[in-house]
UniProtKB/TrEMBL annotation:
Residues 1-23 form the signal peptide. GO terms for biological process: cell wall mannoprotein biosynthetic process; protein N-linked glycosylation. Belongs to the glycosyltransferase 15 family. One of its GO terms (molecular function) is alpha-1,2-mannosyltransferase activity. Pfam families: Glyco_transf_15. The keyword Zinc-finger does not apply. The active site is at E288. This is Glycosyltransferase family 15 protein. Keywords: Signal, Transferase. GO terms for cellular component: Golgi apparatus; membrane. The keyword Signal applies.
Length: 388
């Protein structure tokens, strides 16, 4: 008579045999239970069957004519979108420069509203000056205290020591608390502001930037109709000294939440070794045209909360550019990240100048040879590579 132990051993042997039989006879079962599949933290919990095969980056296909404003026609529809400008009263001159160009090159024709945000109330002089620049609606918003200032739970002596060390090593903005406040706000709070709740898309514009080209199509409608989530013009590596532990925090999050990562993500833009390390490439977030629902979604919400809990915005100097870039690359489908090759743009000291035929079509006021895209520090080649 068989003992209880022998019954257990026999049952276990039968289960193992069934596993191997199913693994070889049923492809789906074998794929789902493979050690390779279970070990891929950045796979999003799904196989590559959803991934589209690309032969060139999507931006190589011109924006369809239907998005362009035709001569002698009126605008029949707009996206639910706004231009968002984070500014202080002292930024007025720079805001006037940026806004005047945006109105002349694009928004004077399309009439999208503006939302201005500040941690202090805007002055009457500021409001009068910017209101005179546009026929579009403008709203002025005050940033809630807890969305801007350093949280009470941050160990200030530890943060102060980090700032001092960065300042001594000439790290840009290394000693600045307000800069860190801004980075944290842009990373995890701007899209929560009450004035933005009614909008789906946004265009981030900063003081003292330049727009070189006439834009006769609606990038918001393009984003909406084509299912895009994030748009950029310049990409480059982040300063390593500002983010020494950021990628460790990212990998920790992905390991705990693999199902939140999109299976057809843009990890190849961020990492040259399948996620083991970060190559520091990011989209320069002083220019962004994006879908606010990307940041409002479960994946990015949990991602930001995880990063914020690490204190890296203050113990180091994590910027919103790498945080947004990593979030977009992991939680959106890779072709939902769009390179606006036809929007000429400069934020000191770098600029994107469209190449032909976009340069001529947009009557761009920039030297076609002065273009950061193919410089040694540009990350555009890595963006291109994920599609080829």
């Amino acid at each position: 008579m068989m003992t209880k132990t022998r019954y257990i051993v026999l049952a276990f042997a039968i289960l193992i045999s069934l596993h191997y039989i199913l693994s070889f006879s049923h492809e789906g079962y074998g794929r789902a239970t493979s050690f390779e599949n279970l070990s891929k933290q950045f796979s999003g919990g799904e196989g590559p069957k959803e991934a589209k095969v690309w032969h060139e980056p999507p931006y190589k296909t011109p924006v369809p004519e239907k998005y362009y404003l035709q001569p002698n026609t009126t605008i029949k529809r707009r996206a639910n979108a706004a231009v968002v400008m984070l500014a202080r009263n002292g930024d007025l001159n720079g805001i006037v420069k940026s806004m005047s160009q945006l109105e002349a090159k694009f928004n004077g024709k399309f009439g999208y509203p503006y939302v201005f945000l500040n941690e202090e109330p805007f002055s009457d002089d500021f409001k009068r000056a910017v209101t005179a620049l546009t026929q579009s609606k403008i709203e002025f918003g005050l940033i809630p205290h807890d969305h801007w200032y350093q949280p009470d739970w941050i160990d200030e002596p530890k943060a102060a020591a980090a700032r001092q060390n960065m300042q001594e090593n000439s790290v840009i903005y290394g000693g600045s608390v307000p800069y860190r406040n801004m980075c944290r706000f842009n990373s995890g709070f701007f899209y929560r502001h009450e004035l933005l709740q009614k909008y789906r898309y946004y265009w981030r514009v900063e003081p003292d930037v330049r727009f070189f080209c006439t834009l006769d199509y609606d990038p918001f409608l393009f984003m909406q109709d084509e299912g895009k989530k994030y748009g950029f013009t310049i990409s480059l590596p982040e300063y390593e000294a500002t983010i020494p532990t950021l990628w460790d925090a990212v990998k920790e999050f992905v390991k705990a939440n693999p199902g939140l990562v999109h299976p057809d993500n843009a990890l190849g833009f961020l990492s040259d070794d399948e996620g083991s390390s970060y190559n520091k490439c990011h989209f320069w977030s002083n220019f962004e045209i994006g879908d606010l629902d990307l940041w409002r979604g479960e994946a990015y919400t949990k991602f930001f909360e995880h990063l914020d809990s690490k204190g890296g915005f203050y113990y180091e100097r994590w910027g919103d550019a790498p945080v947004h870039s990593i979030g977009a690359a992991l939680f959106a489908r890779k072709d939902q990240i769009h390179f606006f090759e036809d929007i000429g743009y400069r934020h000191e000291p770098f600029q994107h100048c469209p190449q032909e035929p976009a340069h001529s079509r947009g009557q761009c006021e920039c030297d076609i040879s002065d273009n950061f895209d193919r410089e040694g520090w540009s990350c555009l080649n890595r963006y291109d590579r994920i599609f080829t």
